[in-house]
Amino acid sequence: MASVRNKVNPLLIPYVLTWRRFGFRTICSSRIGFAPSTSPSFADADTPPVAGKKILETFAEEFEIGSRKITLETGKIARFANGSVVLAMDETKVLSTVASSKGDAARDFLPLTVDYQEKQFAQGVIPTTYMRREGAPKERELLCGRLIDRPIRPLFPSGFYHEVQVMASVLSSDGKQDPDVMAANASSAALMLSDIPWGGPIGVIRIGRISGQFVVNPSMDELSISDLNLVYACTRDKTLMIDVQAREISEKDLEAALRLAHPEAVKYLDPQIRLAAKAGKQKKEYKLSMVSERTFEKIENLAKEPIEAVFTDPTYGKFERGEALEKITQDVKRTLEEEGDEEGLKILPKTVDTVRKQVVRRRIISEGLRVDGRRLDEVRPLYCEAGNLPVLHGSALFSRGDTQVLCTVTLGAPGDAQHLDSLVGPSSKRFMLHYSFPPFCTNEVGKRAGLNRREVGHGTLAEKALLAVLPPEDDFPYTVRINSEVMASDGSTSMATVCGGSMALMDSGIPLREHVAGLSVGLVSEVDPSTGEIKDYRILTDILGLEDHLGDIDFKIAGTHNGITAIQLDIKPAGIPLDIVCECLDPAHKGRLQILEHMEREISAPRIQDDRYSPRLVTLKYSNDALRRLIGPVGALKRKIEEETGARISVSDGTLTIVAKNQSVMEKVQEKVDFIIGREIEIGGIYKGIVTSVKEYGAFVEFNGGQQGLLHISELSHEPVSRVSDVVSVGKQLSLMCIGQDVRGNIKLSLKATLPRPKSKTDISVDEPVAPTSPEVNVWAAIEDVSNEQEKEVANAGPETSESTVKSATPAVLIRSAVECDEEEKSAGLNSKGDNGSKSASKSDQKSRMSSSFLESSFSSRNAKSKRRKDAILDLLSDDESEQKHTSEVGLHSKIGSDKNDATTETPMTANKLKLGMKVTAKVHQIRALGLVLDLGGGIRGMYRFEPGAKRDFEVGDELRVKCSSFSTKGVPVLSLVKEE
C-alpha cells in the first residue's frame, strides 16, 4: 500500500493534507470556482482524487441591429486580460482583449498598439505556407488594425501616456460577415470593461446600398453587389471616423447614408454600458503627464512672438519654416538652461508645439489667413505630366504645391493577380496600388523595412478610389499594378497618388470611364473650455502637412465629376459633430473639379501605345489535351517558354492567355506555342514550319504543332523550279501559306504565296491565294467543337444561313505523312500498269493532329460495308450547302489542270480510277430533299445537289450523265450534270 501511495504522491505528502481535500476555494482573475461538494472521507484515503468543476461566471448582452442578432460576452475566455470581450454575429465570433503597462515611462505621446489577426483555423483550413503556420501580418490585417485604432485613439485622456495594447482575433468565421467592424465594437467593449481611462464607448456600423436602397450591416454577398461600402464610427453625439469605398456616389446620397449610419451605430453603446456595469472594473487613477500653468506661460512668453513672425511670413517654404521654428525652440532651450528650469526643459518640445498650434489656429479663425498665405478654399499650384517615362507601360508625374508623386503602371497576365488568404472576400485581386514613402521625400534618414501600416493604408485608400473607374474584367483582362513613389511630401500624398495614378492609367491605354482626383480638407475649431462645444470653426481646402498636424481633422475625399469613390476621415479631438463633417463635402467637391480640369488638359483619353513598349494580350482557345502538352511535366515546358521570351502564360479550362511586353515578344511566344500544340488550320493562314523530307515532286513540312503538309514543286517560287533541293533542304525553316487540300487529303502549302510577285508582264491567275493584310491573331475553335454541331446547324438552316456559317468554320483537312504518300505513289504506279482489279483503296481512317480530333479518310474502301457508305452519303446530303461551299474552297487548286483528264470512261468504276473531271454514267439511287444519291457502279456512291431552276423530277433508276467536280471532306464524290450538246 505504501508503494501505491508513493506513486500517487511522490513527495510523500499525505492526501488528507492536500488543497482540495478540505474543499478550499480556487481564486482566478477575481472569479471564484468551488471544489465538488462531495469529497472522499478519511477512510477512503487511497481512492484516487476526483477533479473539481470550475464554475466560470460569464456575462452577456444580446441586441439586434439591421435584422442581425449580436451578442457581447465576457468572463469565459481570456480572463487574465485587463478587459476581454467576445462579439458574435451569426456564426462569426471575434475576441478582443486590452492590456496596459504598469510603468510610468517618460514620453510625450500615447503608445497605443492595435493588432488584428485572422488565423486559418477560424475557417477550418490549414495554412499552405511551408511551416504550415501564419507568418507576418497581411495587408488586410494591417488595414483592420488601423480601422480599430482610428476611432479609439482620440478618446484617451490628454496626458495619458501609458502603453496600451489592443489585440483582436477571429475565433470562427462563417464567411457571411466581415469581422473588421465586429472587432472594432468588441475592442470598444473591452476598453469599457478594463480599468484604463477611456472616453468611450463607441459604435461602429457598416452601410451598403443595393439598387438605391441602404442596407445596415450587409453580408459579404450583399456587399459584393453594393455600390457603397461605408464604415462609420461615432460616440453618442459626435463622429469619430469615416471610411468609404463607392462607385461615384453623389455628395447628397453620401450625406443621407451618414445620417442613417449615426443612429444605427449608437445602438451599440447601451449594451456596452450595461455589460460594463455588470462585469467592468473601476477605472484606475493613472498619472497624467500634464504641464503646469506656470511653466506653460513661461515658455509661451518666450516663443509666441517669434513663432507668429514665422507663420505670418508666406515666403517661407516647408523646410525654411521648419528651420526657423527649430531655431526658436533652441533659443528657448538655452534660456531655460541658463535659468536651470528642469521641468521646462523636460516638457519643452510638447509645449512649444502647443504654442505653435494656438498661433496658427487663432490666425486662421480670426483673420482667415493660412500659413502659406492662401485663402481658405484655395488649391495649391498644380503641375501634371503624363508619359514622362515612355519605356514603361504608363507613367505620370503629379505635383500639388510642394507635394510630388511619381506613378507608374505595369500590366500583366491574369495569372499575375495577387492571391489573398483572408477569411472573407475574393480570393484574388487583379488591381494593386503600392504606395511608397521613402525617407528622402521629407529630407530625413531612415531604414526601409517590411510592410508599413501607414504605407499600406494610404495605398489602399488610393486603390479604392481608382477601382471604381476601371473597365470590367471581361473587357480588360490584364492584371494592373500601380507603383506610387512619393518624391516630396507636404500634405496629402495619398490624394496626389490618386491623381497621378489616374493619369498613369490613361497613359497606359486603359479605358478609364473618368479621371479620378482627390484632395484633403482640414478643420480648425475653437472650443468652449467649460462645455467642450465648438464655438467657431473654419474649413480648409487642400491642407499642408503643418495644417494637418495642427488642425482637427484630415478629411481625404477622392472622386470623379460624377461623384465620390473613396473617403478616409481621421479626427484628432474626441469627435466632431456630423453637421460639420457633411459641410466639408462641398468645398472638397469644388477643389476636386479644379484638379480634374488640370489633369484633363494633360491627358483626357486613353493613349494609343507605341508597339515597341506597349504590352500585348492574346486569349486563345484550345482543347485541354493540347494545353496539357503545352504545360509539360510539372509545368516545365511552360516555364521554359516564359524564361526564354519573358512573357507570361496563364492556362485555364480551354483557354490560353499570353501577355507579352511588346508585339515582337508576342510573335515569338506564338511561334513556340504553335510548334508545340499548333492551331486549327485555316486556308490563307500563314504558318512557320520545318522541312522534314525532300521528294522529286516537292517537300514535306512539319508545322503547327507536329502537323505535316505538302509543299509541291510548283508552289516553291513564281519562277520555274527544276529541282526541289535547289530551293529547300531538310531542316530549313519556312513561312508558308495553307492553300487547300489535295485529293489524297494532304494539306497543300505554298511558299510563293508568301513571296512578292516579280515585276513582269504575266497573267494573274484567278486561283492565286492572297496573303492576309492584317497581322491580327485569330482565335480558333477546336475542331471537335465545330464540326458536328455546325454541320447540324447548316443542315437545318436555309441556304443563306448555311453559307455564312460555313464561311466562319475552318475546313476540316486530313494530313498524311511522307511515307504514306510514297506508298500511294507506288500503288498508283502499279495501277497505271494494268493492275486494275487487285488493288484496294487507301485506308479509310487517318489520325489528324489538329486540336486532338479524328477525321475520316477522303475515300471509302471498295470492300467497306454498305451501311457505313450509305450513312456517310446521307449525312453529307443533309448539309450539301455546306459541302458545296467547302469544296469551292478546298478543291480550288485541285481543279487546276483537271481538264486534260476530262475523258469519258466506260470501264468498271473503282475508287482509284475516279478522278476529277471524269465523266461517267450513273443511276439514281435515292432522291433527297436537296439532291440525289447516285450509284456510279462498283459500289461507289456519289452526291448531286439540285441546281436552281434545273430539273428536279427524277425517279429511282434514271440514268444520268455526270461529271466528278470535287470530293467532300469524307471522300464522297460530288457530281454535276453533263449538258448534252
Automatic annotation (TrEMBL):
A GO-annotated cellular component: mitochondrion
Span of domain S1 motif: 684-752
Superkingdom of this protein's organism: Eukaryota
EC number: 2.7.7.8
Pfam family, one: S1
Polar residues: bias regions: 799-808, 829-839
Catalyzed reactions: RNA(n+1) + phosphate = RNA(n) + a ribonucleoside 5'-diphosphate
Keywords (A to Z) from UniProt: Exonuclease, Hydrolase, Nuclease, Nucleotidyltransferase, Repeat, RNA-binding, rRNA processing, Transferase, tRNA processing
Cellular localisation: Mitochondrion
Main localisation: mitochondrion
CDD domains the record matches: KH-I_PNPase, RNase_PH_PNPase_1, RNase_PH_PNPase_2
Alphabetical GO biological process terms: mitochondrial mRNA catabolic process; mitochondrial RNA 3'-end processing; rRNA processing; tRNA processing
Gene Ontology molecular functions: 3'-5'-RNA exonuclease activity; polyribonucleotide nucleotidyltransferase activity; RNA binding
Family according to the record: Belongs to the polyribonucleotide nucleotidyltransferase family.
Name this protein carries in UniProt: Polyribonucleotide nucleotidyltransferase 2, mitochondrial
